[in-house]
Amino acid sequence: MLDAASRLFYERGVQAVGMDALREAAGVSLKRIYGLYPSKEALVEAALIAREQGVLAELSSRSGAAAAPAQQILALFDLLGEWFVAPGYRGCAYLNAFGELGESAPRVAGVVRRHKRAWRDLLAERVAEAGGSPRLADQLALLINGAMTSAALGDPRAVAADARAVAEVLLQQGISGP
To answer: Which residue ranges hold the DNA-binding region (predicted)?
Structure first.
């Protein structure tokens, strides 16, 4: 159910996906869906939480594979570049959901904020290990969120390359040592 919901919400948008489409895609009855998720907001929240586990695991794995902390951060930008060119890339699922629902769905907004904090916290850990300041982590998080949106609207390869290049400059200026 959550995989189908996550896929449909990402492909079509939260508002455009009706419960009948979800029922058909998941192969379950409406009664079962509403038994598990009493509202569409609850289903969106659960789908984002389920998606988050995979995203954060991939981020940790990718950034942890590089030796030097600065390289760990750049590895995240390499991963973004892979995401941007993947078929069907439509930007950040979390920002998309927030863009559609905003504060009218406070539980979804909470999941989005927590997810973005998790990204920022991972960056903050890597930046601190590299000798940089929390401000640098904020700047990199801003760059990542902007790149996610820009890649959905423009040339994803160019956006990925530009974002990585800007990250390199920020890291060169913001850390003490290689």
So the answer is: 18-37
Q: Which of 164, 161, 147, 173 is nearest to 71 (CA)?
A: 164
One DSSP character per residue, 49-92 reads: HHHHHHHHHHHHHHHHHSSSHHHHHHHHHHHHHHHHHSTT--S-
Q: Which amino acid is at 158?
A: A
Q: What pLDDT was estimated at residue 67?
A: 76
What one-letter code names the amino acid at 73?
A: I
Report the predicted TM-score, pTM, of the whole model to 2 decimal places.
Answer: 0.90
Collapse the DSSP code of 115 into the 3-class scheme (helix H, G, I; strand E, B; otherwise coil) and give the result.
helix
pLDDT digits (tens, 9 = 90+) for 28-56: 999 999 999 999 999 999 999 999 988 88
